[in-house]
Automatic annotation (TrEMBL):
PANTHER family: BLR0621 PROTEIN (PTHR38589:SF1). Residues 82-220 form the L,D-TPase catalytic domain. The keyword Signal applies. It comes from Nocardia tengchongensis. Keywords: Signal. This is L,D-transpeptidase family protein. Residues 1-27 form the signal peptide. Pfam families: YkuD (PF03734). InterPro entries: LD_TPept_cat_dom (IPR005490).
Length: 226
């Protein structure tokens, strides 16, 4: 998550404690029911919250078998954005509502057996959140202090700690990339707290999900409010 959204996460999380994107054509469903998704993917991860401002959701992984969906993993508890689920942007801490492809993975730790293309990252691997950069919302490799974008508005993936031991890229705002519409959304290791817009689950659950994901089946993540 970029530094600006880290600050927003802290503020939004504090509000939560005190109080105690569209772009998809298909509709959604509660996690303990058959997904209503009708697109071409044969694997779907549903992430469903009960209210737009909820910071937790129910995550379930589904396989298409014939004309039906069969639960493969879950339901699991997932952490979502500190401002809930809805319209995402660089200035918000919401998880992006919609259906997004899952096409690649990365991590500080060694490959955990995922079939997705996997990049092992170091402190020279960045996700660019500089809205004025032509590399916005892409991976870029450069040594700290030498990058052709504002590093303070980016995320050094290798320096992020356990959250990025393993992660799957959520392909929100990637094709086409719209400046300031939001960047660096991942399915990553959670610590039980709201995120800056990512979806997070415990490490063991993420390992199981990543091993289940099969790029030949066109997996997507469906993030919604019921």
């Amino acid at each position: 998550m970029p530094a600006s959204r880290r600050r927003l996460r802290i503020a939004a999380a504090a509000t939560v404690l005190v109080a105690a994107a569209s772009g998809c054509a298909q509709r959604h469903t509660e996690s303990d029911e058959q997904p209503a998704y009708t697109g071409p993917a044969d694997q779907v991860i549903t992430v469903v919250s009960a209210a737009p401002t909820d910071t937790t959701a129910t995550l379930t992984a589904w396989d298409r078998v014939g004309a039906h969906w069969v639960r493969a993993i879950g339901p699991l508890r997932a952490d979502v954005g500190a401002q809930g689920i809805g319209a995402a942007s660089e200035s918000a801490t919401r998880s992006p509502a919609g259906i997004w492809p899952l096409t690649e993975a990365f991590g500080i730790a060694a490959d955990n057996g995922t079939r997705l293309p996997y990049r092992r990252v170091t402190t020279s691997d960045w996700w660019v959140s500089d809205t004025g950069s032509r590399y916005y919302n892409t991976h870029y490799r450069c040594a700290p202090g030498s990058c052709p974008f504002d590093e303070s508005a980016g995320e050094d993936l290798g320096a992020a700690g356990p959250a990025y031991d393993h992660a799957v890229v959520i392909d929100y705002n990637r094709s086409p990339v719209v400046p300031a519409a939001g960047s660096a959304y991942f399915l990553h290791v959670g610590d039980g707290h709201p995120t800056a817009g990512c979806v997070a689950v415990p490490a063991s659950d993420l390992d199981a999900l990543m091993r289940w994901l099969d790029p030949a089946r066109g997996p997507v993540i469906d993030i919604t409010v019921r």
